Amino acid sequence: MITGKMYIGGKWVDAVSGKSREIINPFDQSVIAVVPEADREDAAQAIAAARRAFDKGPWPHTPAARRGEMLYELGQKIAENREELARLESLDTGKTVEESRWDMDGIADIFKYYGGLADKEGGEVISSPFPDTRSMLVREPVGVCGQISPWNYPLLQASWKMAPALGAGCTIVMKPSEITPLTTLKVTELAEEIGFPEGVINTICGPGASAGAELAESRDVDLISFTGGIETGKKIIQAASTNVKKIALELGGKNPNIIFADADFDIALDYALNAVFFHAGQICSAGARLMVQEEIHDRFVEALLDRMKKIRLGSGFDEKTQMGPLISAEHLDKVERYAAIAQEEGARLLCGGKRPDDSELQKGFFFLPTLFDQCENGMRIVQEEVFGPIISVEKFSTEAEVVERANGTIYGLSAGFWTRDPDRIERVSRGLKFGTVWVNDFNVYFSQAPWGGYKQSGMGRELGRVGFEEYTEIKHIYQNHNPRPIGWFGG
Ligand code: NAD
Fold it and tell me: How far does the centroid of ligand 1 lie from the alpha carbon of residue 229, in Å?
């Protein structure tokens, strides 16, 4: 069993209150670690350490190329520790080790990418309308950043925040989800080995309502970056108003996956499964809203059902497992409630809809892969984020109809569609109101491509150059090389 500590001001510490939390393996509910349980006071100490490191420390003035080297080195260390980190992530989240390995590859790449980008952000000279003057734009780090990540992709989501913030010269207080802190603590350890100055990276464990809320409310935090649910996001916006701090939000999604009749049937089918059952559907971009054109609807649903019945549930550490458990008992209850709601609303249950009966899965938070057909636009199963292994299927007839229906949601994170028609590709890509649109693919992320939502799926973008710029302020420097008398007031 692991005994963890938090990292504040360059020291590994327990919570001021002495409280701790047991971290549970969702496969069998065994206790895998005990970590400190921060509250407001610990968060305030971490913020003070980050404030000192930003205002008085060397980090914001360290040459960007050096900051970049250190990030690159951290990326390399993550790659070297890939297997250990992947196993830790699977222990904590229940996902298969193979999925966690892919996560680690992406995470190593993110640190390397922002390592490379850190010294590429030059300033700009802009034209000034006045003689003998010069106008320049420079980018400077925003300051102290509070960073709050969710439990579904613990280290991946943390890395999307840590790497650009550090590259830009900010100092950070990172708070992973209270139930999945282990890999973020491990990467903090790796960063310590590299020698990031004291107070630049602070990692605290603790619940949102206290430790997280302190980060969002504190007047000493200049930017709050949050990934999580929409309702928490709304609280963050309110809390951030104390000092009008900058806000970056990555919230939920209800993501349509649209299959036109001319699509490559087998490939679209394969990806439709991958779009949802990775990490048991606990992905903000899960393609849980499947929209199938009427000509192929029956055949597609039948083929889907056939494949879904063969999905192997089990331990993430068993090579044969294709889908692990959900994260917690509460979350399992929520997913189960949605399955009941869908049936009450009149959706047709074709498979799953309940917990598995297998005796060896009883201790884990498992839910069967579930398929609902005959779903309608207004149903809650279609409109709300379930975050579990449930597909709702809607039948459509025309392109215009499906685009309008797909857009008819409060969310706007991501969408995908499948067709061979190049003109349709152009029209539908433009018509869908989502931050990312995948054409003949689904759930593709990489360091270079910005990620974020339209509408209530968020504010701002992570990843790519834009994700770096979120952590900078633009300053306009105006120099007058030949000031002349004005002589207006009393002249
Ligand atoms: P959540 O909102 O419950 O918690 C997310 C984080 O916020 C946790 O660290 C939690 O401790 C903290 N928190 C909770 N209440 C808080 C408060 N009042 N003040 C400050 N912090 C608080 O979300 P979750 O259940 O951990 O994650 C699932 C959600 O995350 C889903 O809605 C999913 O769509 C979303 N998500 C979005 C993206 C994206 O890129 N858009 C990626 C992953 C997950």
Answer: 5
